Amino acid sequence: MQHKTLKLLSLFTLTAGLVGLTTAETVWAHHPAGTGGKLVVHMGTDIKSFNSIKIPVNNNTRNAPLSAIHDNLFDRDSETNEFIPQAALSAEPSGDYKRWRIKLRQGMKFSNDVEVTSQAYKAHFDRFLSSKVAGRFRRYMGPAMDRVEVVDKYTFDFHFRQASPGFKAIMAMPIITWYVQEPGWVKANEKKRSFGQTSIGQGPYMVKSWKPGDRITMVRNPNYWNPKAQHFDEIVYQIIPNRTNAFNALKAGQIDVMLVPTTERDRVEAPNTTILDGVSNIAPRGIGFNHSVAPFNDIRVRRALLHALDRKAVTMIGTRVETEVPTQMYPSDHPWFCKNVKMAWPEYSPAKAKKLLAEYGKPVKFTLDIISIKTISTIAQSLQAQWKAVGVDVTIKVGPRGPSYNRGITSGKYDFWWFNYGSNIDPSVVAINFHSKSKSNYYKVNDPAIDAALDKLQNAKGDAARMKASCDYQKILVDQVRYYPFRTAVISFGFNNRIGGIKKPNSNGYKAHRGWIK
Fold first, then answer.
1. Is 323 found in the same domain as 250?
2. Distances (CA, A) of 98 to 10, 206, 409, 465
């Protein structure tokens, strides 16, 4: 079978369907009963714990196995953009978008044979939102999530402190907040040392065994509401830390699915593999900085730093191919991309950079904090060299990946850092990060014009009004040079050609368990 590379870059169709959303009772389209068999999914690191309060990290390593154990309320078909009911049948917002009412599918059971009810969701979110890391879970859930209230046995409400018009899209995201555990089991076990070694969910598979550092093995959940979706007899999440070994295992047919860095696609190419590309629901990656401290509180310095950069060359370092330089929070094929709207980014002009720095009149010196990834280090060195050429002194500080680096951002320890700008699944989600009153405003932006534009976006009704408000606030961010985007996030997965049902990825939490063996 010839190797095939499919370039698939559409993401979501966000229409007025986000208002008054009720979906028909449809489920994933299924092929006839397959051959069963075993699926092997690559993991680069161990999950460390199934307890997401202990490990509140939202990445492919955690989402891949957890999404097989726990169904989202909805899934989203990456080809048609259709919302597909899973644990929920419908989701209806209130007129001000501060409440979303959820109707659960009746008759669902957790893998321990306990019925799934609204109370299970309330218990789950009460536990998360009263934990030491509640702020992180709230950020995952969008604008100012407040609480969950039970309406009846199969109906409950999400309440928000401000409008959350894009919440339906968040319900379909593979993020750790959606992995609801059976509350009775949690209560009986959460104080035990063994808690975190497994999880009891309502999804299609359940944990058979976990050998830390080696593999997680799953089998079918006998109580799953939709047995037609359980195509595999067994799923193994195989931990292979060395990327070269993992690439070789995929090409040799020893693993079936793996996340592939965009810069290393060629290392996976083989006659028996397929690579699928998709634009992620993550906003562009680039630089975040603290606007409340010098020199970043001066727009002349912010403009100078961008005038000094050949952003196209920097983008190509991250992708190894010629690609578009991000100009918005969304790539050009994203439904929320502002068409025919020019964003006035400072052009590449070292001469203009030097002139602005001379007007500033003080030495510009700072530290760029990054994580220990080779590509990011290479990008940082390029930035450092280009800024040095206009007289800016930059020190690069490399920190560990994971929670400790994130704490440096959230605590305000860093003044200038490598970052991605959060989820761009809906304007109401990505927008909150720049509002002066948002707890996610790590950039310390405090500007009345930006706040007014974001308030207008949060209160806009209808698709056209929301699009205009989204474009307006983005123009203000660019005019004031409030962020530096260098690279659009692209997600690539490699598959063994024996696996059917593969769809283009729209996040790094790819649900490989939805496939089957051909």
1. no
2. 29, 34, 28, 18
